[in-house]
Amino acid sequence: MFSGGAAGLHEFWPHPWCDLGVGGVGGVEVRECGRRVELFEQIRRDRRLEKLSTRELAQRHKVHRRTVRQALANAVPPPRKPYGVRARPALDPWATVIDGWLLGDREAPREQRHTARRVWQRLVAEHGATVSEVTVSRYVALRRVELGLDSVEVSVPVDPRPGRGG
Questions:
Q1: How far apart are alpha carbons 149 and 126 in whole angstroms?
Q2: In Å, how far are 83, 106, 126, 151 from 88, measured between CA atoms?
Q3: What number of CA atoms fall less than 13 Å from residue 139's CA on the CB side?
Q4: Is 106 found in the same domain as 65?
Q5: Taking a C-beta distance cutoff of 8 angstroms, is the pair 102, 149 a contact?
Q6: 66 and 105 part of one domain
Q7: Is 129 within the bounds of a domain?
Q8: For residue 122, what are the domain limits?
Q9: Rounded CA gap, 122 and 116, in Å?
Q10: pLDDT 10s digits, 110-136
Q11: Where are the alpha helices (DSSP H) in the chain?
Q12: Is 166 part of any domain?
């Protein structure tokens, strides 16, 4: 079905999950698709075929002239700048406490491990924390993945006798 190459790529554009609006080239709003590669491709194609100026390209595609210049200079969009680590003023004082509880849960039986709600309740009761339950819940979910506490071990008993599931 997909022949590959540049010609095959155009058969599936615009993507079916894109929310296409009114405007742009042929009634297709490229920006709402969220695919900068296709946007850069359209800008380069319009420049090559219609000889439009930078300003006209910017107006047609509803982007800044700087974006048009980037598209004309290189077919691949520049990578996004990495975001810095944001401060969590409500949660940072309690992060080590929560991490200690979660790490302590490694040895505890499953029924005795802390749920996110229980972590929040202990923070409020034992430490007087003024942090929302949702904030604690998001942090606990994130840290469980980072610490590898989200994996579940499953064992299936095998009966080696013939015809008994083994």
A1: 24
A2: 15, 26, 20, 27
A3: 24
A4: no
A5: yes
A6: no
A7: yes
A8: 92-147
A9: 10
A10: 889 999 999 999 999 999 999 999 999
A11: 5-9, 36-50, 54-61, 65-73, 95-104, 116-127, 133-147
A12: no
Q: Is there a domain that residue 159 lies in?
A: no
Please name the residue that has the structure tokens 């969009």.
77
Mark whether 65 and 110 lie in a shared domain. Answer: no
Rounded CA gap, 138 and 157, in Å? Answer: 35
Tokens of 138: 């998001």
CA distance 14 to 164: 54
What is the sign, positive or negative, of the torsion defined by CA atoms of 136, 138, 144, 150? positive
pLDDT single digits (tens) 75-91: 999 998 998 888 889 99
C-alpha span between 165 and 122 (Å, rounded)? 45
Number of domains forming the structure of the chain = 2
Neighbours of 43 (CB within 10 A): 26
pTM, entire model? 0.50
- In a domain, residue 21? The reply is yes
